[in-house]
Amino acid sequence: MARQQDPSRPPAGTPKTLKNRAAVRTAAAVTAAALTAVPALSAAAPAAADSEGAADTLTIAASQPVDSLSPFLAQRLISTSIHRLAYDYLTNYDPETNEPIPALAESWKTSDDGLTWTYTIRDDVTWSDGEPLTAEDVAWTYTTMMEDEGAATANGNFVANFASAKALDDTTLQIKLEEPQATMLALDIPIVPKHIWEDVEDYSTFDNDGFPIVGSGPFVITGHKPNQSITLEANEDYWRDPPKFDRLVFRYMPEQDAQVEALRAGEVSFVSNLTPAQADALKQTENVTVNVADGKRFQGFTINPGASTQDGQEFGDGHPALKDRVLRRAIMRAIDKKEIVESVYGGYAQAAGGYIPARYDRYYWEPKGGERLDFDPDAANRMLDEAGYERGDDGVRVSPEGDRLEFRMHVHNDRPDYVAMGKLLVERLADIGIEVENRTVDPGVLSDALHSGEFDLIFTGWTVNPDPDYVLGIHTCGALPTEPGTMRSDAYFCNEDYDRLYEKQLATYDDPEARAAAVKKMQRILYEEAVVNVLTYADTLEAYRSDQIASIQVQPDPGGNIWGQDGHWSWSSAVPAADAAAGMGVSTGALVGVGAVVLVAIGGGVYLMRRRAAGAEDRE
Amino acid sequence: MDTASRAPAGRTAAGPPRRGRPGLHPAVRYLGGRVITALVSLLAVMVTSFFLFRVLPGDPVAALTQGRAVSVDQLEAMRRDFGLDQPLPQQFLDYCLGMLTLDFGMSYEYRVPVSELIAERIGPTLLLAGTGTVLAAMLGLALGTRAGWRRGSLMDRVDTGLALTLWSVPSFWLGLLLIVLLASGAGLFPTSGMSTPGVEGAFNVALDVAHHMVLPVATMVAVVYAQYMMIMRSSVLDEKGADYLTTARAKGLRDAAVLRRHAVPNALLPTVTLIFLNLGRVVSGVILIETVFAWPGLGSLFYSGLRVPDLPIVQALFVVFAGSVIVMNLLADLVYPLLDPRVRT
């Protein structure tokens, strides 16, 4: 079918002329394109440079798009971080120590029963539209969240226990509680301007996109390109020191590797959430500073001790042997946390002690002496031998009740560190005669298994706030599901001593030492029971351009992080570097880039013409 | 394009000519049949979309509040807001009524109407995938024609080999490679995004966007042009032995003219179907490329929606993606008789 060219075919027409005409046409088109592109570029380049504002813009790579600009709705870290910049809070956390410090509230006092809190509100704060900020704004924000379900979407748990929030006068706010609450100096609720928000009809859908958005924080949100970027300008009238950078831009870049490349190119000034490999590579890069911070998060796994509801109704299909505390503790003795730190995190982590990460000095607890469940497979084997778990012919132990120790382990497949940890766990547990079926699955599958109680071991991790109330509360008996499948916690844990201590730490909100002591005892119970098992506190790895940012505040200081702080300190304190190369790179890049495209186009055109000409020669 | 089958699509449009019923014009019959088929497909897609994403593991409310301090009341309120407390048949009914009135519901995560989100994102996707498809088709057709016409030549072997190699390269990898080499390495292009914040003026914005488009479009063209090339190459091969070409040569036409005026128009037919099918897929975008280059299009919206799962978003997008393929397929069916008299009855 495929016939070869027929060489005997007579030449036809005037091929040379035709060919050349086509060639001339192509060349003309290419030249025309080039001619239009080049001046266009020189016009755009300075414009780009101007709008960049050279050194005064700080660009931050964001891994998530903003979900909502409404403080009542925003749940993602990117959105709440931006709200910390644009709004004020009743109190802040000290950048160096993480302790609560005055913000909108200058001072506060508590009634003897702990149910009435009276705050004195600063009188020198104005909204970015010039209106004064008063206690009425604060009271209105809280009351709206108490009364309107839509407004309670994001932060409702903070006010769930409020009986009332009233402004006694412009500078006095009074909050009455149903029961004592430990987080009264840690209310992470952005205060919104009443005069703007009281006209909103439906808080569950209002997305707060009237720019510039009226706020009172160190920055004002001035623009949002959905799924692309969000821009904030410095608030020169901010009641603390105004920020040094004129503008902040959060750029959405979902791909982590692309973020790192953007940092190398100088397009963004800051990236967070680096992997150990990326951090190591960036350490070698010129003009880039890598910040290794103690993590706010713990990584670990929970063991299913038998899922049940608050009423004691059992459900799920957890392995019956895991009800035995000795077995759970033996599992912990078989795991080498130091090995995980080295081989999973490349050293960028700490082997965990208690439930609360080491960066929180006040609450950090570490097991001592004989209570430590350190890595010791021999000891673990002895514990199991003594408890009657005998090894079967295949080396896998069998419980005294005759159940083979064969456990399912659910691992998030979207977290490389968990996946690597899971593999290590399989090996280590095999050493003590426990067979683990590694189920590395979609987080959705994992969440279903957790809620239905159909798991044995399951990975977990929480970001711990400076106030640990919430992460402690999820392991009280009250956090067990009311009916199967409705759990909000991540472990089926219920311990009366633990609950008593939880109440105690709530009641001692005004005695930090006593509260810390209670919190530490709670962690000891968690550790001893070995249902909630913490393995590591992974470091937070971040990097910034030292040729764009001269200095930046970490929290806590030293050893703290830049991204995801409890406060606005990093971005409000950042100092621009003296030599401003940032803006220039872009426009030069544009020039050269489009130039390269034009060259390729010309090259391609020439190539095609030559090919055509050559083809014609061949055949004629 | 990456999501759908990457095997070069064959001809699907040309149905066998059928005898018309008496009293009904054959053209009307043809047209009516196609339209009805399309409508039925659309309905099936709608129903599938509802159940398909409810089979996905995971609870949207749990995923949205994961790692956050929330009370049980808040969880219940969210469930009520999303309508997830309703029994499934009721949810299905609401969904169907909504779809029929083009009300896709409210996104769980963004709390805005899904139609608004789609309207926001469809422009960038059409721009990126549309440009990419047009360029890939042009390049593929040109190279495919040459390769088919001169089959077995060095040029054919090199071009075909190169096209197939690129076809088998994962698009996100090629994208990252281009970023490393040309963006952060040589500094010629922005590493990602669609625009530089703060650029103003229509002309500057257009130039800025064009500059941002170069790498994603290049990635897309490199990966997909092979399918156009291979289809065109094989159709040109099919035509090459045809008698009418011998006739054309016999009457003294030059080789190039034989190719251009006689072989190519006939060889184009199957390619037209392919182009139409791909035009439908333009809407679904190039999910991985959009993700690597942080391109704010429908593909990345779908990807992020799937992770929650944000049911209203993924349901609506599924219907939109499938619907656009169906509509384009229908258009291909309708255009086909105009191009090929043999299809007309």
General description of the model:
The complex is a heterodimer of chains A (620) and B (345). Chain A contains 17 helices and 23 strands. With 620 residues, chain A is α+β, with helices and mostly antiparallel strands. Chain A has three domains: 199 residues, D-Maltodextrin-Binding Protein, domain 2; 121 residues, D-Maltodextrin-Binding Protein, domain 2 (3-Layer(aba) Sandwich); 242 residues, Roll (Dipeptide-binding Protein, domain 3), CATH 3.10.105.10. In chain A, a hairpin with a 2-residue loop joins strand 6 and strand 7. Chain A starts with 14 loop residues before the first helix and ends with a helix. Chain B has 345 residues and is mainly alpha-helical. Chain B has a single domain, classed as MetI-like fold (Orthogonal Bundle), CATH 1.10.3720. Chain B is built from 13 helices and no strands. In chain B, helix 12 runs antiparallel to helix 13. The longest helix of chain B is centred in the middle third of the chain and has 39 residues. At the A-B interface, helix 1, strand 10, helix 6, helix 12 and strand 19 of A face helix 2, helix 3, helix 5, helix 7 and helix 8 of B.
